[in-house]
Amino acid sequence: RSTTIDTPIPTPGKGRRSMDPHENLADEIRKLESDIRKQGDVVRAKKAQKKDGLVEQDDVDQCIEQLKQLKLRFDEKLKEFESTGTKMDGGKETFRAQMTNLLERRLFYIPSFKIYGGVAGLYDFGPPGCAVKQNLIAYWRQHFVLTEAMLEIECPSVTPEVVLRASGHVDKFTDLMVNDVVTGDCHRADHLLKDVLDRQIHNPLTDPEVAKKMKEVLARVDEYDDQELGELLKKYDVKAPETGHALSDPYPFNLMFATSIGPAGNLKGYLRPETAQGMFVNFRDLLYFNGGKLPFAAAQIGQAYRNEIAPRAGLLRVREFTLAEIEHFVIPDRKNHPKFGQVKELSFQLYPRAEQLGEAKETVIMSIEEAVRKGIIANETLAYFIARTYLFLTAVGINPQRLRFRQHLQHEMAHYACDCWDAEVECSYGWIECVGLADRSAYDLTAHAQKSKVELSAFEKYDKPRQVEVVTIAPNKPQVGKQFKKDAGIIMEALAAMEDKDALALGESLKSQGKATLKICSTGQEFELTESMVSIKLETKTLQGRNVVPSVIEPSFGIGRILYCMFEHAFYLREGDEQRAVLRFSPVVAPIKCTIFPLMQDSKFDAYLDPVCRALTEAGLSNKVDTTGVSIGKRYARTDELGVPFAVTVDYQTLEDGTVTLRERDTCVQVRMPSLEVATVVRKLVDAKLVWKDVQARYPAQMTAN
Questions:
Q1: By the number of CB atoms within 10 A of the CB, which of 26, 40, 446, 525 ranks highest?
Q2: What does residue 338 show for φ and ψ, rounded to 5 degrees?
């Protein structure tokens, strides 16, 4: 793990004056920070007195100027302190700059429309970036779609407004935004608060008790509404980051890109903010394709779009991105999973609600079986997908020690959700949500059924017929139509949608009084029904099964975020040579699996290059022949920067016995083997059917090339 540990500002011993200028400078900084707090209180008091007419504006301005001078001195001293080598987050910034330089230089990704100055939140993937991304998606498809026999579909990105209104996106798909009151620049409110709190928490000058309270606020920052967030921005004196100007009150901003469908522009639409809605609206056809059986899962990989308020942090927050989403449809009261036994003993870092709200705020390592048994994870199916997600992320190169599954706090979840977890990966930007896993109950199908007037349910056949009591509501349609005319349809819909207890109460009123009032909640209308207009009875029936609206377990993978965290976890510098950068990609996602080098430019080697290349290609392994005249060491270094895990070298011994060397990237160890066996060995290494130690045990070692 390539990280730099921030050095805290040392605290001099009590009762003596330190002779260390570094410590004396730290003392000055602490005193200035204390003076700034006190002067801030003075300014607030003067403003209050000015409001009451007790002081003049000049007095207030003078106090403000003194506060500004203190802040300027504080900044100067802090810069002087950092120039001695002790920097806040300096290691992270250096690490990120080194990695980004490599990724852009080797064309993994670059800003889009670069020659025109670029557009924030949009990126182009170059050849190696495309290869890594496609390998990641291919492995996702193998790990989930093929292994779990999911039904994969592909839907358009342009979505009619009615679909996204039914799903709630039109009204509720918002982030809270603030504006710089002078320039009008837009900022995402919670991000500004997070940045300020994070800096203060990691600042050695911050009082431990204050830092503790800040951590509590930070843990719940996603829960706050616009008013609460506005109060916190004022409390922590959050300003516009570029200008230092004051900020407006937070207000909601819808993140969807609006468009119109068709030349007349009469049909409003949006670029989809997620791929999930396509699977919900196609549920009925997918159920039919699956033989009418539950449970089953649908999957979709595709582009999604969000008009982010202030895109930043590279691939972590962009305006167009790739999602890989699963909708697992299951009978609501049967959320056990047949494969749960295969993963139940897996243990890894969980961050449940209790730990987030407790004193320590630390993760716990717990088996999936224990988490379900204790009720921490709501059900087996959700737990199964959490475990499968853990296996997927670690297989593609995410460090398990820097991966945790955080449970949503109660106020973070939508009212209809049963349980929600995020797979969060630690990188230089902190803990980043890469996968969301949620039990969304039956909300989505119910919402689309109500809006479209199309039934989205499944028939669950009982093992044996059951005797059950059912409430039957039988309206006299001709009489209702004659009496209420255009309102008859509304009345029919209201009767059909009534809960059993409400229907029985209505039937009792009709029977005892001969009439009853039917109130339509959605419109506030009231209609008086007579006993002859509707029959309501409680009857015993023999049922073979029942219609149910399935619950949905939804794992949603942000491919770009996973990709970025993979880059950070893979990047390191060779020990003893900081000029040699390496990307330690898992072979399954590496852009090129194997390179092939002649030891030097000599036509004698050419006859051996093509057969090795052809054999690797026929084995489905991406490869590259490098015949440039630079030294073999430089060619190794060049492929290390691309994350190529294996390299074959054709040398003079090859001319004698047909053997070549195979080098492993991270150890730089080489073994010698027959050229005809290279493709088979590399294929097994990429498929994790062999590990490098197995290869070392089987083939003789060659002198290491660094």
A1: 26
A2: -65, -25
Q: How far is CA 107 from CA 316, 596, 644, in A?
A: 18, 21, 15
The average pLDDT across 547-552 equals: 94
Where are the extended beta strands (E) located within 228-311?
Answer: 251-254, 258-261, 267-271, 296-305
CB under 8 Å to 665, separation ≥6 — which residues?
582, 584, 639, 640, 643, 644, 645, 646, 647
Q: How close are the terminal C-alpha atoms of the chain, in Å?
A: 21
Do residues 349 and 404 lie in contact, with contact meaning Cβ atoms separated by under 8 Å?
A: yes
Whether residue 313 contacts residue 429, with contact meaning beta carbons closer than 8 Å, is answered with yes
> Burial code of 155-169, b = ≥16 C-beta within 10 A, e = fewer?
bebebebebbebbeb
- What is the pLDDT confidence band of residue 32, given thresholds at 50, 70 and 90? confident
Tokens, residue 142: 């193998």
Distance CA 683, CA 670 (A): 17
Query: How would you classify the pairing of strands 403-407 and 347-351?
Result: parallel
The pLDDT value recorded for residue 393 is 98
Whose CA is closest to 638, among 579, 587, 678? 579
Question: Which residue(s) pair with 557 in the sheet?
Answer: 324, 435
Backbone angles phi, psi at 275, to 5 degrees: -95, -10
Between CA 368 and CA 341 the distance in angstroms is 10
Q: Helices 559-570 and 127-140: crossing angle, nearest 10°?
A: 110
Per-residue pLDDT, 358: 83
Determine if the pTM surpasses 0.85.
Answer: no
Question: Identity (one letter) of the amino acid at 73?
Answer: R
CA distance readout (Å), 488 to 477, 479, 504: 8, 10, 21
Whole-number Cα distances in Å, 644 to 134, 181, 571, 623, 685: 16, 50, 13, 9, 13
For residues 509 and 535, is the Cβ–Cβ distance under 8 A?
no
Residues constituting the chain: 706
Cβ–Cβ < 8 Å for 128, 106: yes
d(CA 496, CA 62): 72
More confident residue, 570 or 519: 570
Is residue 259 within 8 Å of residue 193, measured between CB atoms? no
d(CA 325, CA 152): 10
Q: Which strands make up the sheet holding 186-188, listed edge to edge? A: 186-188, 174-179, 251-254
Write the single-letter amino acid at 684.
K
What pLDDT, in 10s, does the model give residues 584-600?
Answer: 999 999 999 999 999 98
Cα(672)–Cα(705) distance, integer angstroms: 13
Over the Cα atoms of the chain, what is R_g? 32
Distances, alpha carbon 53 to alpha carbons 39, 40, 42, 45, in Å: 21, 20, 16, 12
- Confidence at 704, pLDDT banded by 50, 70, 90: low
Within its chain, how far is the Cα of 476 from the centroid? 53
User: Which residues touch 494 (CB under 8 Å, ≥6 apart)?
Assistant: 518, 520
Please spell the DSSP secondary structure of 205-244, one letter per residue. TS-HHHHHHHHHHHHTGGG--HHHHHHHHHHTT---TTT-
Q: Which residue did the predictor score with more confidence, 331 or 470?
A: 331
Banded pLDDT at 703 (limits 50, 70, 90): confident
Tokens coding 134: 């496609």
- The answer to whether residues 384 and 335 touch, using CB atoms and an 8 Å cutoff, is no
How far apart CA 386 and CA 392 sit, in angstroms, is 10
41: Cα separation from own chain's centroid: 41
In 3-state terms, the chain is what percent helix, strand and coil (to 5)?
Answer: 45, 25, 30
Q: Is 672 exposed, middle or buried (0-12, 13-18, 19+ CB in 10 A)?
A: middle
User: What gap in Å lies between CA 112 and CA 122, rounded to an integer?
Assistant: 6
